[in-house]
Amino acid sequence: MRTWAIEVGVVAIVSAVLAPQGTGAQTPAQPSATRRALRSPAAFGNIQDPATRSVALFVEAGKVLQHPRCLNCHPASDRPSQGTGYPHQPPVQRGADGLGVTAMRCATCHQTANFDPGHVPGNPKWSLAPASMAWQGRSLAAICAQLKDPRRNGGHTLAEIVEHATRDPLVGWAWKPGADREPAPGTQARFGALIKAWVASGAVCPAR
Fold first, then answer.
1. Which residues pair with 100 in a beta bridge?
2. Average pLDDT of the chain, as a whole number
């Protein structure tokens, strides 16, 4: 217990020292009600053409996919980002297993739960997405193509993608990020329902 307390104290100190300074570092602007909202699949039921409805469903789910809570863990490089999208401090690297490199492993700071006093997020499965699933700076169409491609989605079927979106606890962290981080729009259940409806309607990707 004493060792754990010491580790938590170190995390808090390191986080306070290394966090970017200024009001924008930990206090993002309040999102609009539209950005916070996530419509249900039923909201698109009046779209008669299945392909058009499928695209609309994915665009709605894209509010989550392109939110900082997701993009930060799907970085364009081997260095993740944090907060509203600024470079992670300290300057950690992905590592061969997505869990960091020697002496800078993710679990050194990121424990199994959020540590709000130090603004350190946590989850038992904390890690970066595979490099093949880099989303930052990419269009929604490009992200959609990645999700559908087993060579770039970790070898998963669309059914497994639906399960991941709906039930994975690390995905679910995006709605319980702790501290003063902005959560992803809607809920994980609604996000999963949108992805499921998108797959059921043909998994059609937007043009851009």
1. 105
2. 85
